[in-house]
Isoprenyl transferase (candidate division WOR-1 bacterium RIFOXYC2_FULL_46_14), 232 residues
Amino acid sequence: MPKQIPAHIAVIMDGNGRWAKKRGLPPIAGHKKGADALKETVKACAEIGVKHLTVYAFSTENWGRPKEEVGFLMDLFMQTMEKEVEELNRNNVRLRFLGRLGQFSEKLQAKMKESMEKLQNNTGLNLNVMVNYGGRAEIVDALQELLNSPHLNVGNISESDISNHLYTAGIPDPDLLIRTANEMRISNFLLWQLAYAEIYVTPVFWPDFGKPQLLEAITDFNKRERRFGLRK
Ligand code: FPP
């Protein structure tokens, strides 16, 4: 067991399509297996005492994928909530969907709201699922909200003013960002919040990610010297 468990882990769950392609399957087969990998990762995080887990499930750019794939992902979000909310509740997990939720169907939005409300008093792992999310869109939305706030002093905006209007307001910044499938990019994920995160990239495709891979990432994180711009 790694010595120090990061309080907040963010994950870019990449490689579902490649996992499927390698097996001669359509991308949706990878997403289906990706949902199982997420379930395993959530369970593992709850077990080892991670406080916050933030995952990138659907980006503002993902609407541009083939219609069947987008439709499948929407159905998968719906079914996963129907299937898993009870178990998340038993495990004391609090769930938040964060992003521009208004673009989803009324039915999906209602289900997200209902699931979040059901789990809102839980005190264990905080699971943040970023959907229709873009880091730049989030900063734009934060500024919009900030500029409309009655207490604003325009000449004196601070970093915490911006943090406090992001979708993640009140949640500490991630300590560790894990990206699967070997891509060395941030891809518009948590642009503000990742300022000082340690980045861990693994060649493992997301559907093959699970507790052993999570522990490996945390072990690597333990070797890093975090300086936050200081000289140590
Ligand atoms: C990236 O793989 C993955 C996505 C765009 C979707 C992530 C969704 C899941 C893991 C499904 C489960 C989520 C929930 C909340 C139930 P990719 O398709 O871009 O992979 P590729 O780059 O290999 O094509």
